[in-house]
């Protein structure tokens, strides 16, 4: 009888159908997110994607080789020849470390393949976590699941995230943003449930955000501003201060264990700044208790003035010792004109401000809704997590407009703010029993998300960059894969490879050789030196190798290390109706339209005539005959010919090939002329040597370039893979991607080149 009474005393758990609904909806969105971003696996072989992720994979491999011990990673001897470089512990250590840890159970059996597999599929986990984090953060802040569903759906179908979150993308900023949203979720729970202990998991999330992304300055400054807003709005309380203290202590302690300067014990930037924020909140609470009422009423003004004074004093102090308190990347956001004073920054697309239209394309309807989300938080959700999301939103949206590399971080913040906006609008009108407005809003959002999903699916059918040779065309092209494979298997392990910095990680990781520069700006001096070598003649390049690097040509008595130089671009083979062939450097300016003899560049020639001249500090008009281009375009546009506009556009797009005599004598141009001539498949056409009259009708009859035979650099490998065939006057034209590998040799040393056309040696 007692047993029965005890059983009856236990209250029955009420079935929460909404929890089940949340689980089903979020799971469905997770599946959608994953499905969209693995579509490329059904069409193309999978590899690590883009450029930077190759280095992250390489770091993960180095850590795995040390048994997952991130303290024991040796210097990367392949980087920045001849010095080598420690892997970027402060910015990229976390994501490779996690990849290495999850590969450790399989590493003893599968070796590097285990690390490679985990690196590629880790983005599946990211797709799931991003959706869940957006839902939880918005649901916790607003307590409205409709807006939380919208935020999760935005993440699931976002085209801008799809660019980076495809398999093998290893997007460290996306990982950072996901962990920040989880931190906001746990902080909201701590404050609303009055349980500061939730600050501990929030601190763990900030630790993970800092070590995977490295944006600790951005995270800490935004949290400090949010705390300041909390005080100004008189919303500070003891629960918030306690929760933030636990967050700061947890994060500072864990990041202090990371092997570089982002932790409390190894540097002031992260740990101390986080601990100062809760101290500031406690100070405000103390002043509120001890100060007279008339002073308390004006305390915000006093605190604001004091903070401005301290910040000004700190900036002046740092300036007096020649140090900037703001990292250069963030300073460029604060001062948009700053980046134009840094030559390298002016040449990197992701550092160049973008128009509003590009922002709309990146973020869609969430960009507009996020502005409303900021407004609603400011007037209604004035707790620390909401204010932190507000500051993150303002900073990241503005920052992305100035430097687009932040876009796949901002997408998460914009999605969460959009979810807040939808939550508030739906709640407000439903309270007034006006259902039409919420229905219309959700319909508009739904249509927008369907459009985003369509774009994301299209973007997903894009081959990894290495497998389409970094072209803008969605076809497989193995020119670079073939060249890297040759470097790996046919050059000595101590070989030194030179190339433009865009390909440094590929050569270093896939080619497994030392490079002069990587895909980063850590050594601007060496990048500038490479630009100067490409833009000057071969004698200049040979002198640099001997005097600056003490490297000598193959065949010299002083020869010790084999030296190679790599260049990449396109080439067009024109075949007339009689079977005669002519090579054109570059690819048709109107590709895939009818080829009329005018080409442009998608590789190193365009970079030479733009980025390299900027970085080297050479006037562009010394290499490109801009006045001739402009006068030709003007004559066409004023000629009255029906096809004038189209021809003028083709000519204008051909600008990188309008070479001056100095350009013709540059190393990079000579590499392509000699490389194509060595194929013995026809002469090489001189750019801009075809009269428009013959280009529009008849057979293309250009002037031919004289034979180039460089003394110090000889082609040893030429990789040619077709990009497509297009019609041409009197015949057709086949476009190839070309990767050239030259070796530094003593004059008159003969090295027969290996030529690979579409995977077959000839």
UniProtKB/TrEMBL annotation:
Catalytic activity: an archaeal dolichyl phosphooligosaccharide + [protein]-L-asparagine = an archaeal dolichyl phosphate + a glycoprotein with the oligosaccharide chain attached by N-beta-D-glycosyl linkage to a protein L-asparagine
Requisite cofactors: Mg(2+); Mn(2+)
Ranges of residues in domain Oligosaccharyl transferase STT3 N-terminal: 29-379
Alphabetized InterPro entries for the sequence: Oligo_trans_STT3, STT3_N
This protein's pathway: Protein modification; protein glycosylation
Sorted UniProt keywords: Glycosyltransferase, Magnesium, Manganese, Membrane, Metal-binding, Transferase, Transmembrane, Transmembrane helix
Listed GO CC annotations: endomembrane system; membrane
Molecular function via GO: metal ion binding; oligosaccharyl transferase activity
Family, per entry: Belongs to the STT3 family.
Name the record gives this protein: dolichyl-phosphooligosaccharide-protein glycotransferase
Organism: Stygiolobus caldivivus
């Amino acid at each position: 009888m007692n047993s029965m009474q005890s059983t009856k005393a236990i209250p029955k758990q009420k079935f929460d159908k909404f929890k089940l609904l949340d689980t089903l909806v979020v799971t469905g969105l997770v599946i959608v997110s994953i499905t969209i971003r693995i579509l490329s696996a059904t069409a193309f072989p999978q590899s690590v994607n883009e450029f930077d992720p190759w280095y992250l994979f390489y770091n993960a491999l180095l850590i795995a080789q040390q048994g997952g011990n991130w303290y024991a990673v040796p210097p990367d001897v392949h980087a920045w020849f001849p010095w080598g470089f420690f892997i970027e512990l402060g910015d990229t250590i976390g994501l490779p470390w996690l990849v290495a840890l999850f590969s450790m159970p399989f590493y003893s059996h599968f070796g590097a393949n285990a690390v490679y597999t985990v690196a590629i599929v880790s983005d599946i986990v990211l797709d799931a976590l991003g959706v869940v984090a957006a839902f939880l953060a918005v649901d916790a802040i607003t307590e409205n699941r409709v807006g939380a569903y919208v935020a999760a759906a935005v993440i699931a179908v976002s085209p801008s995230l799809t660019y980076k979150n495809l398999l093998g993308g290893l997007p460290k900023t996306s990982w950072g943003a996901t962990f920040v949203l989880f931190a906001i979720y746990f902080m909201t729970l701590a404050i609303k449930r009055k349980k500061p202990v939730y600050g501990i998991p929030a601190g763990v999330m900030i630790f993970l955000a800092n070590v995977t992304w490295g944006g600790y300055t951005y995270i800490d400054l935004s949290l400090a501003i949010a705390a300041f807003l909390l005080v100004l709005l008189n919303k500070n309380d003891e629960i918030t201060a306690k929760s933030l203290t636990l967050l700061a202590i947890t994060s500072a302690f864990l990041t202090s264990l990371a092997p570089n300067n982002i932790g409390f014990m190894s540097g002031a930037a992260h740990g101390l700044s986080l601990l100062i924020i809760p101290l500031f909140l406690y100070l405000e609470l103390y002043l509120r208790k001890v100060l007279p009422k008339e002073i308390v009423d004006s305390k915000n003004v006093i605190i604001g003035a004091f903070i401005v004074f301290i910040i000004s004093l700190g900036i002046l102090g740092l300036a007096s010792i020649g140090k900037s308190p703001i990292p250069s990347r963030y300073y460029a956001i604060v001062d948009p004109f700053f980046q134009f004073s840094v030559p390298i920054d002016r040449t990197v697309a992701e550092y160049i401000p973008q128009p509003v239209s590009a922002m709309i394309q990146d973020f869609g309807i969430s960009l507009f809704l996020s502005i409303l989300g900021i407004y609603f938080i400011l007037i209604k959700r004035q707790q620390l997590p909401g204010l932190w999301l507000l500051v993150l939103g303002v900073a990241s949206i503005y920052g992305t407009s100035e430097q687009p590399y932040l876009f796949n971080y901002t997408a998460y913040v914009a999605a969460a703010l959009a979810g807040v906006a939808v939550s508030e609008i739906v709640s407000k009108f439903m309270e007034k029993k006006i259902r039409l407005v919420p229905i219309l809003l959700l319909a508009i959002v739904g249509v927008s998300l369907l459009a985003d999903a369509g774009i994301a699916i299209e973007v997903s059918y894009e081959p990894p960059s290495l497998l389409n040779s970094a072209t803008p065309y969605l076809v497989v092209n193995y020119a670079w894969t073939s060249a890297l494979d040759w470097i790996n298997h046919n050059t000595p392990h101590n070989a030194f490879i030179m190339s433009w910095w865009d390909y440094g990680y590929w050569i270093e990781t896939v080619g497994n050789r030392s490079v002069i520069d990587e895909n980063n700006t850590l050594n601007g001096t060496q990048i500038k030196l490479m630009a100067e070598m490409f833009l000057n003649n071969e004698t200049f390049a040979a002198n640099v190798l001997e005097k600056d690097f003490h490297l000598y040509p193959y065949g010299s008595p002083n020869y010790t290390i084999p030296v190679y130089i790599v260049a990449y671009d396109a080439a067009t083979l024109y075949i007339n109706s009689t079977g005669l062939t002519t090579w054109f450097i570059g690819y048709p300016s109107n590709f895939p339209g009818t080829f009329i003899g005018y080409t442009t560049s998608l590789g190193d020639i365009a970079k030479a005539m733009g980025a390299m001249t900027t970085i080297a500090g050479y006037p562009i008009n010394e290499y490109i005959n801009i006045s001739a281009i402009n006068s030709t375009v003007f004559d066409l546009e004023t000629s009255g010919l029906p096809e004038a506009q189209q021809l003028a556009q083709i000519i204008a797009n051909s600008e990188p090939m309008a070479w001056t005599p100095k350009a013709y004598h540059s190393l990079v141009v000579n590499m392509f002329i000699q490389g194509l001539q060595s194929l013995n498949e026809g002469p090489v056409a001189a750019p801009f040597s075809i009269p428009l009259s013959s280009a529009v009708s008849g057979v293309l009859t250009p002037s031919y370039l004289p034979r180039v035979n460089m003394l110090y650099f000889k082609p040893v490998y030429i990789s040619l893979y077709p990009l497509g065939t297009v019609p041409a006057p009197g015949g057709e034209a086949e476009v190839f991607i070309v990767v050239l590998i030259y070796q530094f040799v003593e004059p008159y040393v003969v090295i027969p080149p290996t030529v690979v056309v579409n995977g077959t040696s000839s």
